[in-house]
Design goal:
single chain; mainly alpha; 4 helices; about 0% strand
């Protein structure tokens, strides 16, 4: 059953898509500066970050908030 979520700006976007977008936009160094999470600066990879973010709600929230803020700035490309 598919549930529509018109008020959820992240609906239909996977955490992996969010991480790939942030890494492309900011790079690991800037990402780790903006959100202090060890997996962003100690041998970073999308795979290790996803594993951590999926079990750490406070960190996932910070990543999602940064993603939404980056989209509101009208970034192109």
């Amino acid at each position: 059953m598919s549930v529509e979520q018109p008020n959820n700006p992240l609906h239909g976007i996977t955490l992996e898509q969010i991480m790939n977008s942030l890494v492309e936009q900011f790079g690991w160094r800037e990402l780790s500066r903006r959100i202090e999470i060890r997996c962003f600066y100690n041998d970073p990879s999308v795979k290790s970050s996803l594993k951590f973010l999926r079990r750490t709600p406070w960190a996932r929230k910070k990543v999602e908030d940064l993603y939404l803020a980056s989209k509101q700035t009208g970034r192109t490309g």
